[in-house]
Amino acid sequence: MHFHLPKPLHGWRAFAGEVGIIVIGVLIALTAEQLVEAAHWRSEVRDFRKAVDHELGRNFGIYATTMQNRACVQRRLSDLQALLDGSATGHQPHLRVPIGRPANYTYYFSV
Predict the structure, then answer these.
(1) Out of 32, 35, 53, 91, which could bridge 86 as a Cys pair, Cβ 3.0 to 4.6 Å?
(2) Distance of CA 87 to the CA centre of its chain
(3) Which DSSP category does 85 fall into?
């Protein structure tokens, strides 16, 4: 196996050339690192925005459905209150439909 030993530098000009090459190499490496980091954060922001959009869309949909069902729930609560008031006086009211509950949706809070 044959290898070459480094030769000593001859003068300030050669030394400045070597230092210049090292500085340029470090600057290129730092620039490449910044570009990769910027691309990584753009990807993170894109994924975050997509997750927030999905979560907000689902939550707004749940809210809209809840608001649409609000009148029906209020009527049913009035019916149940009348049932309770009637049973407190000893009256045996007749239920039109079994007692149930409105659909309960879970909001997203992950993002």
Answers:
(1) 91
(2) 49
(3) H
